[in-house]
């Protein structure tokens, strides 16, 4: 899948912010389109916490599994 297909709506990207939380997830604020490995799109809006430690059982979303681990200290 080409990146141009995923990011074709420029207005959505202009209204979206991503913050990297200290020892925590990526916090996405705004409207996003998530595309899974099968190519299925899902629209999300608001505050979405995305896993960046790899420990979440609910990927791509953060479930707090990073708390108590040192995986984000490296």
Estimate nothing, just give the exact number of structural domains.
1
Number of strands: 3
Query: What is the general shape?
Result: globular
User: Overall mean pLDDT score?
Assistant: 83
Q: What is the CA-atom radius of gyration, in angstroms?
A: 13 Å
Level of helix content?
10-25%
Biggest sheet layout: 3 strands, antiparallel
Q: Report the oligomer.
A: single chain
Quote the beta fraction.
25-35%
Number of helices: 2
**What is the succession of H and E elements?**
HHEEE
Q: Unreliable segments (pLDDT under 50, ≥5 consecutive)?
A: 1-6
Strand order of the largest sheet: 1-2-3
Q: What class, by secondary structure content?
A: mainly beta
Distance between the termini: 31 Å
Q: What does this protein look like?
A:
- The protein has one domain (3-73).
- Strand 2 and strand 3 (41-50) form a beta hairpin.
- It is globular, with a radius of gyration of 13 Å.
- The model is unreliable at 1-6 (pLDDT under 50).
- The chain has 74 residues and is mainly β.
- The chain is built from 2 helices and 3 strands; from the N terminus they run H-H-E-E-E.
- A 3-stranded antiparallel beta sheet has the order 1-2-3.
- It is 12% helix and 32% strand.
- The longest helix is centred in the first third of the chain and has 5 residues, at 10-14.
